[in-house]
Amino acid sequence: MPVVEASPGVFLAYETFGDPSAAPVLLVMGFGTQMIAWHEDFCRALADRGRYVIRYDNRDCGLSTKFDDHPVDLRQFIASVTAGDIASPLAMLPYTLRDMADDGLGLLTALGIARAHVIGSSMGGMIAQTMALTQPARVLTLTSMMSSTGEPEFGRAGPEARAVLFSPKPSDRGGYIAAAEKEMVWASQRYGDPAALREMAANSYDRAYYPAGVGRQLGAMILGGSRAEALRTLRVPTLVIHGLDDTLIDPSGGQRTADLVPGAKLLLIPGMGHDRPRQLWPEIIDALEAHTRLPSAPPAPGAPSTG
C-alpha cells in the first residue's frame, strides 16, 4: 500500500484506480471509517467511466498517521461540549477539520495533481466542502454526499442512530463484527444488508483496528463549526447527494447544503440510508460521471504542476 507525506509529519495511505491521464477524482471517507468503505468494485466502476480514482485513509484511521500522543476521552469530550465548555475540548484536539482538508489536498500535490474532482461522504463531505472553500482553485467539482453544513439544526441524527454512533464497540474481533449489525439503524431500509456490514467490519478490523482515532476525528468534526456563510460564496460546481432513509445525518443536511451553495444540484435518493448499497451504485455513479464531466479549466496561478 503506497504512503505519501501529505502534510508535515502526516503520511496518508492511498490507492488508485484507472488511467492516471484521466480526470482525477479524490474520494474522501467519513468519520472513523477506512478508505475500503469506498468499495473496490465501486472505485473500479467509476474508473471504468473514464476517471482516475484515488481513495485514501484519513489521518488517525486505517494505515495513515496516528496521533497516539493525544488521547481523547470521548465521554468527557461530549460532556464538555454539551455543557457549553468549548475551550476544554479544543485543548484536547491535535488537529482540525481544516487540517484534514489540507491532508487531502496535500495528497493530490504529492501525486502531481493540480486540480481534482472531490467527492466526500459524511464527515468526508465536510472535509471536501472545506477543501473547496479554502482552496477552490484546486477543486474542479465538489460532491457532498450524505453530509451537512456544520449547523446543528440541520442534518441531526435520530436518537437511535446517535446511541449506536456513540456506543463503544467491543475490542475482540468477534464482538466487533457482530456489533456492526447495529448500523442497520441508519442503513438503507430497502437494501440494508447485515452480512455486508459484518464483512466490512471484519475487513476493517483485520486491516487496521484503531478505535483511539475515533474521538479525535469526531472532535474535529464537531468543533469544525458552521460553514453556512462560506458556502453561500462557493463558486465550485457542486452536487449534493443524500438518501431519504438517512437517520444518521438527516436529509435536511443535504437539502441545506444545496440551498446554500449557488447553483448546486441536489439528488435525493429514495431507499438510500447512510450507506451506498450496491443496488444504488448505477444511479450514484451515473450522477458522479455526469457531474465530473465538466470541462477542466487550466490550472490556477500558483497551483502545483500536474507533471
Count of alpha and pi helical runs: 12
What is the share of helical residues?
25-40%
Order of helices and strands: EEEHEHHHEHEHHHHHEHEH
Give me the CATH fold name: Rossmann fold
Shape: globular
Strand content: 15-25%
> How many discrete domains?
1
Query: Low-confidence segments, ≥5 residues, pLDDT <50?
Result: 296-307
The radius of gyration over CA amounts to 18 Å
* Main sheet characteristics: 8 strands, mixed
Please tell me the CATH architecture by its name: 3-Layer(aba) Sandwich
Give the full name of the CATH homologous superfamily: Alpha/Beta hydrolase fold, catalytic domain
- Biggest sheet, spatial arrangement of strands: 1-2-4-3-5-6-7-8
CATH uppermost class: Alpha Beta
SSE class: alpha/beta
Q: Can you give the mean pLDDT?
A: 93
- β-strand number: 8
CA-CA gap between termini: 22 Å
